[in-house]
Amino acid sequence: MKPYLKLLGLAASAFILMGCSFNGEVVEPVEEVVIIKEIEPKQKRAAYAQAEIKKREEYKDTIAQHVMRYWRRPSSAVEGLSCTVKIKQVKGGKVVSAKVGICNGDRVVQRSIEHAVLRASPLPSPPDPELFDRNLIFTFKPRD
Q: What range does the domain containing 10 cover?
């Protein structure tokens, strides 16, 4: 739809909503129609965005679980370990770099996680190619 037609439609809807006169006739307000017209697309976009976020989080969880299989837990690893891991990958899941960000583990633990990510290469492919991200951040939280 052309933008000016959409604007004209909204202006007419607002005019009717207020119960104003149109060609000398008083028009009854039709609030429900206007509300449905404006809210329905917003709800669809919000639902789509939520679904995309969920898929992306599931993909990150898959990567974290994959990396976990390659991790050799150092003796200095504390219970409740949680580290943010930043990776760079190319198509096909080959890891180019891995860097631990915020982490409650010491330097030995951080290095062990970075090495696990590199050993885990190539990473699993996303279920939807649109989810692929060259720069990916996930949380590494081993089960205690």
A: 3-140
Indicate the burial class of 109 (C-beta count within 10 angstroms; 0-12, 13-18, 19 or more): buried
Select from 54, 52, 85, 55 the least CA-distant residue to 68.
Answer: 85
CB atoms within 10 A of CB 29: 12
Do 99 and 116 touch, CB atoms closer than 8 A? Answer: no
The helix (run of H) or strand (run of E) holding residue 96 is strand 95-103
pTM score of the predicted model: 0.68
Number of domains in the chain: 1
Report the amino acid identity of residue 62. Answer: T
Cα–Cα distance between 29 and 40 in angstroms, integer?
19
Residue 135: CATH number of its domain: 3.30.1150.10
Please, are residues 68 and 119 in contact by the beta-carbon 8 Å criterion?
Answer: no
For residue range 69-103, what is the model confidence (pLDDT) as tens digits? 999 999 999 999 999 999 999 999 999 999 999 99
H/E stretch holding 37 reads helix 31-68
CA atoms of 142 and 123, how far apart (whole Å): 18
